[in-house]
């Protein structure tokens, strides 16, 4: 998993950055190879002196554990599957499959690309004739990915695991091998690997992935068919053998920007509202930015009337929708660069990594990292780097409280 300077100030603001960095490695450069391990090109390293923070890479479970530790255990209720919900002027009530219910002021659907909250919300809106036609479409699936993280490896055989920076390699198959396989090193002498196949290029590959039976046996079947693929460390099979099968996952790469993010007391964030291709490393970052901006608007709700709640949720969407929409072309372009196998995509990749001036690439990096929202009701993290970032919107509630304080005569 990768996090960028677009969200790291929020981690610093919450006092979590040091622990996050303790299980991460900076991702300053990435090398692209052909399947014969001939160098295609290198991604431009972005200087932390300019943008303030390095991009970082780590194994996803460590971030999960870090975030989970911040939540009091009594606030967590596991094995709850949402069946339905309904709201009125006073509250929203959820019903679960175990015949229990929960009641509150606001429901935040942060339950991923196949969100149960979104499905029920859309079902209700569809019955009322309020659901846009675009939101009833299926998410397109262009790629399938198999991911895993090895156990600790022997540095004598894999010396790159000892480097301070993450070794990031992208190997792109030829026209008859519609795969891209990626490796990067993380702390603990481990290597995270990712195998991506582009659908619609090879009939045999498409047939292989039509199965919906994504159990470990099917993952093993896919792994057996690609063990011979070369990496700078040997073969993928060497990494597979060092990875427990329960640590292997297979997922679709889908993308969809839904028009409906909120209604009444319900709001969607992250993949539930917008699914980006992970090629640009922006999916998790955008979900976290959603959470930050939504928190800012929730803080401004005072009093908690239905009218104020609906306004806050609509303002959240207004703040985020165009920011997200503007990233879709970039995610598609990045996917073509590192996952694409058509003739045009190969030509495009050659041009970008051999003809585009590095200064232009660096300018694009600086532009894309300028947006860094933080919680505006907490002390902001210090500014880092020389890059001018987009200014933080102040809290309406805090501004009003300050105005009221100035308007109140001081006590004698």
Automatic annotation (TrEMBL):
Chain positions covered by the region annotation Disordered: 391-412
Keyword Flavoprotein among record annotations: yes
Boundaries of every FAD-binding domain copy: 10-122, 243-323
Superkingdom assignment: Eukaryota
Pfam families assigned to the protein according to its UniProt record, in alphabetical order: FAD_binding_3 (PF01494)
Coiled coil residues, start to end: none
GO molecular function, one term: monooxygenase activity
Keywords from the named record: FAD, Flavoprotein, Oxidoreductase
Basic and acidic residues bias: start-end ranges: 398-412
Protein family membership: Belongs to the paxM FAD-dependent monooxygenase family.
Protein name: FAD-binding domain-containing protein
Organism, scientific name: Linnemannia schmuckeri
């Amino acid at each position: 998993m990768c996090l960028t300077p677009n969200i790291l100030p929020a981690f610093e603001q919450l006092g979590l950055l040091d622990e996050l960095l303790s299980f991460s490695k900076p991702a300053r450069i990435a090398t692209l190879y052909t399947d014969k391990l001939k160098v295609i090109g290198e991604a431009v390293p972005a200087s932390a002196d300019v943008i303030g923070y390095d991009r970082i890479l780590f194994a996803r479970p460590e971030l999960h554990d870090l975030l989970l530790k911040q939540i009091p255990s009594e606030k967590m209720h596991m094995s709850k599957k949402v069946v339905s919900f309904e709201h009125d002027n006073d509250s929203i009530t959820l019903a679960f499959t175990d015949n229990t219910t929960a009641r509150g002021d606001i429901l935040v659907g942060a339950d991923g690309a196949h969100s149960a909250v979104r499905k029920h919300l859309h079902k209700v809106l569809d019955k009322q004739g309020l659901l846009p036609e675009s939101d009833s479409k299926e998410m397109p699936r262009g790629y399938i990915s198999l991911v895993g993280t090895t156990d600790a490896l022997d540095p004598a055989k894999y010396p790159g695991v000892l480097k301070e920076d993450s070794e990031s390699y992208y190997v792109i198959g030829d026209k008859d091998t519609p795969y891209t396989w990626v490796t990067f090193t993380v702390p603990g002498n481990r290597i995270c690997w990712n195998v991506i196949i582009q659908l619609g290029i090879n009939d045999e590959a498409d047939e292989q992935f039509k199965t919906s039976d994504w159990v470990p046996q099917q993952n093993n079947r896919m792994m057996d068919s690609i063990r011979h693929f070369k990496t700078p460390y040997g073969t993928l099979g060497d990494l597979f053998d060092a990875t427990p099968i329960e640590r292997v996952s297979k997922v679709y790469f889908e993308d969809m920007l839904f028009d409906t993010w909120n209604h009444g007391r319900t709001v969607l964030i992250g993949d539930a509202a917008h699914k980006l291709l992970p090629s640009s490393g922006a999916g998790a970052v955008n979900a976290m930015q959603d959470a930050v901006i939504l928190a800012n608007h929730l803080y401004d709700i005072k009093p908690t009337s239905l009218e104020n709640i609906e306004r806050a949720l609509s303002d959240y969407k207004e703040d985020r929708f165009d920011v997200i929409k503007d990233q879709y072309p970039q995610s598609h372009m990045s996917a073509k660069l590192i996952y694409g196998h058509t003739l045009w995509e190969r030509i495009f990749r050659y041009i970008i990594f051999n003809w585009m001036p590095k200064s232009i690439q660096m300018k694009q990096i600086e532009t894309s990292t300028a947006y860094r929202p933080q919680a505006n009701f907490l002390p902001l993290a210090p500014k880092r780097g020389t890059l001018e970032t987009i200014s933080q919107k102040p809290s309406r509630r805090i501004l009003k409280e300050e105005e009221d304080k100035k308007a109140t005569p001081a006590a004698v």
